[in-house]
Amino acid sequence: AANLLEAWDPTKLAYLSVDQLSAFTRKMLVMSDDEAVQKYGVSFQDAETIAPALLSYVLIARGFAQTEIAISDTNLRDGLLQDMAIRDVWTANFRSQIIRSAISLGRRFEFNEKHARHVATLCRKLFSELQSEHQLEPKLELLLYLAALLHEVGTYINARSNHKHTMYLIRNSELFGLSRKDVLLVALVARYHRRSSPQPQHEGYSALDRADRVIVSKLAAILRLAIALDDSRSGRISDIHCRSDSKRLVIIAKGVEDVSVEQLALRQSGSLFEETYGLPVQIRAARK
């Protein structure tokens, strides 16, 4: 609308003639995605779909013999997602579609799917086991699961500083069903799967309010536990139980005899869990 109406006010409805929109649509249809991004400042994700979407609006308007189209600063997808978020009605089918979108993104960047899925499953179990510790809403389990699936996609760019590359790729990708804020949270949780703990000056993290910063720290700490539990990348640890007291959190791994590799990986992953939850962590093999 801003490109077609000089006095467009995004806080109000604007009206555009179907003929104007049709002429603009014809220009968009012959543009490449790169040209659309450069000329109109849209994202690459929007550039891929904007011309077909505009053409649909034109055809619908003409089908109903309309001469004008009302334009707002939001779209149908934004409205649906906001409504679902307010009513917390992410159905099982909707969640499955979101996960499929993340897996598709991971495959695009050639991720280790077996390891990613196993870490994500461990994250789900840890989220459930540690409910009394983190006290987070159920929706955030899905964001943790997505971050776990995608935590290593940055290696597609370079293994060095891959956690930063991971954040960049996720943040600049389209994940079905997620708002931009949710995508940022997923990107940040995945970014903090290794190396330093979240810092106020870090890109993206600095833009969050205090509540969201706490969420990122809590979820990233759980992700690090899950990654340590699959340090061998063999999926050998899958059955776990958590026990905590005022002194420590103990993760009991069933079906294995030696967890020294995982315990070492946990120590090397940093102290984010202890910093966030106030509890050191120990991994033990279950007694037979």
Keyphrases for this structure?
288 residues, mainly alpha, Hypothetical protein af1432, 2 domains, three-stranded mixed sheet, two-stranded antiparallel ribbon, 13 helices, 5 strands, 55% helix
Give the gist of this structure.
This protein has about 290 residues and is mainly alpha-helical. Helix content is about 55%, strand content about 10%.
What does it look like?
- By secondary structure, the chain is mainly α.
- It folds into two domains: 14-73; 88-236, Hypothetical protein af1432 (Orthogonal Bundle), CATH 1.10.3210.
- 55% of the residues lie in helices and 9% in strands.
- It has 13 helices and five strands.
- The protein has helices spanning 18-29, 33-40, 44-63, 76-87, 92-108, 113-129, 131-134, 139-150, 162-171, 180-191, 210-229, 260-268, 272-277; strands at residues 14-17, 68-71, 239-244, 249-254, 281-285.
- A three-stranded mixed sheet has the order 3-4-5.
- Helix 6 runs antiparallel to helix 8 (139-150), helix 6 (113-129) packs across helix 11 and helix 10 crosses helix 11 (210-229).
- The mean pLDDT is 89.
Secondary-structure blueprint of this entry?
Layout: E1 14-17, H1 18-29, H2 33-40, H3 44-63, E2 68-71, H4 76-87, H5 92-108, H6 113-129, H7 131-134, H8 139-150, H9 162-171, H10 180-191, H11 210-229, E3 239-244, E4 249-254, H12 260-268, H13 272-277, E5 281-285
Parallel strand pairs: 4-5
Antiparallel strand pairs: 1-2, 3-4
Helix pairs in contact: 1-3, 5-8, 6-8, 6-11, 8-10, 8-11, 9-10, 10-11, 11-12
